[in-house]
Specification:
- The chain is built from 18 helices and 21 strands.
- With 499 residues, it is an alpha+beta fold.
- Helix 11 packs across helix 16 and helix 13 packs across helix 14.
- It is globular and about 60 Å long.
- The protein starts with a strand and ends with a helix.
């Protein structure tokens, strides 16, 4: 089984056997482009190029006959944002990703109106700036020609499937980003009309089951990837759902944390529980919902920091381990430096931005990195506290994403959340989840929770009382500073808007 996971900056192709054991892998990186203030985009052809090169590298590592051995392909990709194509399947503009905030003025118009409360009731979520509803409303006003040219409005993985197979489709997890009925499933004409987007109904792709075969690899895609033409490709899932499958976090009431580009904090539920602090989306299994509280404010902050400051030579290989060792040397005592991890956005309605507080001349890089790591964890805590206020969450939390590679960071999560945190032996969780869907479609597994594909626990972090106290105090300061800085951040944003 080949699992492909297309994240915001990296695409990974991983070859698994039928039980989810890694055979070979390849990857490619495509940096996000902030073409102007609040805009975060990707060239769609570059997204496809990165994906087919990652697949080719993976199969090359596995051996010359690997392409013939692939029984099926599963896809996962980042959610929200917008990948629009015309009748020929060609991009009509650059892709807009979920970290884009150009549509904030649209949200300001909607907040406090019946649109807000009605959207929450019908869809289980209120829109955010990078959601399809907000972006399409922005495009309708600012770039109407794009929507006139568009034939299909896709998500990231659906764009890759189109290039692999020529087939247009999506799945319930990605379809429920903005326009599906929370209770019944399927696209809701009332929701589209609510946002003033009813005329775009025919541009939404058909919805197929996550483990349905939605197409086969074309000859053109086979030549680029090394796959065999005719290989089945399953519909796949939003990467957060696929990651939960990959690490075995699918039991109702079990908390999964994905610390990657986004802060993802999610619980599978057997009933929808609505709150504006989170999103309720359909899960890969019918009759279940994924409740997730999210923000673009996790490990992407570290990537930004290293990009801006320059990654030292000793960090280029094993960056999380190297930084973890450096931070560990500065963990004694209270948190002297505070960081708000909002360089790409936050879960809060008021204007925010990335901010270091408490810097002194004697603070070095280790102090800043500790503050950054703690700030990311404290933002995750805000989300988890919200979920715990209305949902019954039991047991340890499962952690995946970039932060899971760092033992120091994993321990910070346990200390800040005051609950055990486990890390499985699965490194590429979303790719593995996509591959499990492919294995299910091919009859090699009896569903994605087949015991033969269980993930093993690699390590377990228990909360340490002394560090729990430190991070409790840091969280109080974090929250107080968040409130106090609101007017300052608003003035900075107003100054930026005049440029």
């Amino acid at each position: 089984m080949l699992g492909v996971d297309a994240g915001h900056t990296m695409t990974k192709a991983v070859l698994f056997d039928a039980t989810g054991r890694v055979v070979a892998q390849g990857s490619g990186t495509l940096p996000l482009k902030a073409t102007r203030s609040h805009w975060v985009e990707r060239d769609m052809d570059d997204v496809w190029r990165t994906a087919h090169q990652a697949i080719a590298a993976c199969l090359a590592e596995a051996g010359p006959e690997a392409g013939r051995a692939v029984a099926a392909v599963g896809l996962a990709g980042h959610g929200d944002g917008l990948y629009a194509v015309d009748e020929r399947g060609r991009p009509v503009r650059a892709a807009i990703v979920a970290m884009d905030t150009r549509a904030e003025p649209v949200l300001e118009e909607w907040r406090g109106t019946p649109i807000w409360s009605r959207a929450l009731k019908l869809s289980g979520t209120v829109p955010f700036a990078g959601s399809p509803a907000a972006l399409l409303a922005w495009l309708a006003d600012r770039e109407p020609g794009v929507l006139q040219q568009a034939r299909w409005l896709l998500s990231c993985k659906d764009w890759l499937r189109l290039r692999l197979t020529g087939a247009v489709a999506t799945d319930p997890t990605d379809a429920s980003a903005s326009f599906t009925d929370m209770q019944r499933g399927g696209y809701s004409p009332e929701l589209l009309d609510l946002y003033g987007l009813g005329a775009l109904a025919d541009l939404l792709p058909p919805v197929l089951a996550c483990d349905a075969v939605s197409g086969t690899v074309t000859r053109e895609a086979a030549a680029l990837t090394g796959l065999t033409a005719g290989t089945p490709v399953v519909t796949g899932a939003h990467d957060v759902d696929a990651a939960a499958l990959g690490i075995g976090g699918t039991a109702p009431g079990e908390l999964c944390l994905i610390a990657g580009s986004f802060s993802i904090n999610q619980v599978v539920s057997e009933r929808p529980v609505v709150d504006p602090r989170w999103q309720v989306r359909h899960f890969v299994r019918p009759g279940q919902w994924m409740i997730m509280s999210t923000s673009p404010a996790s490990v992407a902050n570290l990537e930004w920091y290293l990009q801006v400051t320059g990654a030292p030579a000793e960090h280029r290989d094993g960056v999380h381990e190297a930084i973890g060792r450096e931070v560990e040397a500065h963990l004694d005592g209270p948190s002297q430096v505070l960081f708000h991890p909002f360089v790409y956005g936050s879960p809060h309605q008021q204007p925010t931005s990335g901010t270091f507080l408490g810097l002194r001349g004697w603070h070095g890089r280790g102090h800043l990195l500790r503050a950054l790591m703690e700030g990311v964890v404290l933002n995750h805590r805000w989300h988890v506290d919200a979920l715990c206020s209305k949902l019954r969450i039991t047991g340890a939390a499962r952690l995946t994403g970039g932060a899971a590679h760092s033992e120091v960071w994993g321990q910070m999560f346990a200390d800040a959340l005051r609950r055990p945190v486990v890390v499985t032996d699965v490194e590429e969780s979303a790719a593995r989840g996509a591959a499990l869907l492919a294995a299910t479609a091919g009859g090699l597994l009896n569903g994605v929770t087949d015991p033969r594909a269980c993930a093993a626990v690699l390590r377990r972090h228990e909360p340490r009382p002394d560090r729990v106290a430190v991070l409790d105090e840091a969280y109080q300061v974090y929250r107080e500073a968040l409130e106090a800085l609101g007017p300052v951040w608003a003035r900075l944003e107003a100054a930026e808007a005049t440029e």
